[in-house]
Amino acid sequence: MKKYNVTYVEIVNKDKSTTRCQWFNENGRREAGYGSLSNTAQKDITKDTLHDLVHSVVIPKVVRLKGNKVTKTTVSLIDGYDCYYTTNDDGQTLVCFTSTDIPKILPLRTLTQLKGLNNDDDSSLKHNLETVIDDFHQELLSYHDSSTSEVTEQDLQTILNVMNDNIDKFLQRQERISLLVDQTSQLNQSSFNFQRKAVKIRRKMWWNNVKFWSICGIVTVVSLFLLWVILHL
Question: Which PROSITE patterns match (predicted)?
């Protein structure tokens, strides 16, 4: 039975520095750091391509909220690949690239489980990633080899297709919610900036009024003094 793998996983700190990442090389073996993709990847896609996409496109879209769910980018960043991302309570952003023919439950489960695990170094991330993927594959095998039902490879693929459609709808909704939250945050920030600017303008106008009436008072006093001097000459 075919074993599904994710293509690329990167964890980015709150200060946008990369902490760890994993990928598959040509032999399908997971390694730490940056490297080539699986043999199904396009030839012109490199480790730097995905890294640049993470920092130039994905990270600016992220809205960090407690309890954030996994979100899929609406626009395809690379033909033939999907991009998923989420955040954890430590302010880190977890990003995952997968081939479009991968069951969408895999990156969803991968990021959801990784965000709750200790990924402080490359070895721990590698171990956690392997565990999540192996567990997923074992579940598929157990379902496929179940003695209580006659499930063919085609039946399993049909189930995965239905699951993909449902997850796609969920992820599209999640993306819209994320965009709405981002727009709300921007509106709140704009409102705050407007209020702060209004306060500054009001203070400036108040000082201008103070200066104006002060000058008028001084001119009046000087005029009265000069008038008094003229009258008493």
Answer: V_SNARE
Cα separation, 103 vs 4, whole angstroms? 8
Please write down the long-range contacts of 137-146, taking CB distance under 8 Å and 24 or more positions apart: 137/3, 137/4, 140/1, 140/4, 141/1, 144/1
Question: What does DSSP say about strands 81-87 and 93-99: parallel, antiparallel, or unpaired?
Answer: antiparallel
Phi, psi of 170 (to 5 degrees): -65, -45
**Distance (Å, rounded) from C-alpha 176 to C-alpha 181?**
9
Name the phi and psi angles at 151, rounded to 5. Answer: -105, 120
155, 171 Cβ separation under 8 angstroms: no
**Which pair of structure tokens corresponds to residue 75?**
């626009």
Phi, psi values for residue 87, rounded to 5°: -130, 160
Tell me, what amino acid is at 224?
L
**18 phi/psi in degrees, rounded to 5:** -75, 130
Quote the radius of gyration of the chain (alpha carbons, Å): 30
| pLDDT at position 104 | 82
CA torsion sign, 66 to 72 to 74 to 76?
Answer: positive
Question: Which parts of the chain sit beneath pLDDT 70?
Answer: 1-2, 16-44, 65-68, 143-165, 167-183, 185-186, 233
d(CA 137, CA 154): 16
Report if pTM > 0.90.
no
d(CA 70, CA 213): 61
Domain boundaries, the chain: 8-178, 193-232
